[in-house]
Amino acid sequence: MSAQSGQDGSASIAARYAQLRAQVPAHVRIVAVSKTQPVEVIAAAIAAGVTEIGENYVQEADKKFTALETLAVTKHFIGHVQTNKAKAIVSLFDVVQSVDRLEAGRALAKAAAAIGKVLPVLIQLNISPSERFGVAPSEAAALADALRRETSLILDGIMAIGPLDAPAAQTARAFETAAQIFRQIGGRTLSLGMTGDWRAAVAAGSTLIRIGSALFGARPAPARVED
Ligand SMILES: *Cc1c(COP(=O)(O)O)cnc(C)c1O
Fold first, then answer.
1. Are 14 and 44 in contact, with CB atoms under 8 Å apart?
2. Ligand 1 atom at minimum distance from 97 CA
3. pLDDT score at 4
4. Using CA atoms, how far apart are residues 61 and 76, in angstroms rounded to an integer?
């Protein structure tokens, strides 16, 4: 069927990952965003050298991670944090990149404390009018202070989604805002950049890019809408 499946699919994921890894500076981590991709495709990516994956939807990730259990890979939650799913998120994921309000942070902290886990988190910053989620830059420092008081969380930096289909200057300005807030807040991770804008993100100081379509090809439409 598509070039994604079977032997050819695995080969092309390996080639795409190698090509991307060669273009991205060595200090910048690549998280392979595997939402909507089936387990076999994720396994092929891991076989090709991918060490970190990102998922947006809790139920989808739960099903896929069960099948991927034996594969050593760091799992990032990059979707919207619903407080009623905090327990599941904390048990499934190693890092949560998308804490955009104190209520979400507290729910994650409580769930982490309950299972004796210390969870690395990033604050999701809103730097684009096209984005629904993310804390406003002016409120990021206060959220950071509050999250740092949660002993079962480690605040490790900032995540942001750039403006979609924006002129280069607007993207650069948005990423510069994120980099500035990152310098204020501290941490090791500035998660900035996707398939369409990772070069601009790296130029602005990104330490982690989140890549879906450049590795896996265009995404199939999601089977269901969740949060
Ligand atoms: C889907 C998604 C990505 C990957 O997008 P691509 O454009 O396919 O690389 C990155 N970050 C987040 C938060 C996403 O939801």
1. yes
2. 13
3. 43
4. 10
Work out which ligand 1 atom sits closest to the CA atom of 213.
Answer: 8
Q: Within the chain, where are the H helices?
A: 6-23, 39-47, 58-68, 86-92, 102-114, 140-148, 168-185, 198-203, 213-216
Q: Is the CB of residue 64 below 6 angstroms from any atom belonging to ligand 1?
A: no
**pTM, rounded to two decimals:** 0.93
CA distances (Å), origin 32, targets 9, 93, 116? 15, 14, 28
Residue 71's CB is within 10 A of a number of other CB atoms, namely 14
Q: Are 159 and 207 in contact (CB under 8 A)?
A: no
Say if residue 38's pLDDT is above 80. yes
Tell me the per-residue pLDDT of 8-20, one tens digit each, with 9 for 90 and over: 566 699 999 999 9
Tokens linked to 14: 């390996």
| Segment 126-144, tens digit of pLDDT | 999 999 999 999 999 999 9
Cβ–ligand 1 distance for 157 under 6 Å, the answer no
Per-residue confidence (pLDDT) for residue 10, from 0 to 100: 67
Residues forming a β-bridge with 210: 31
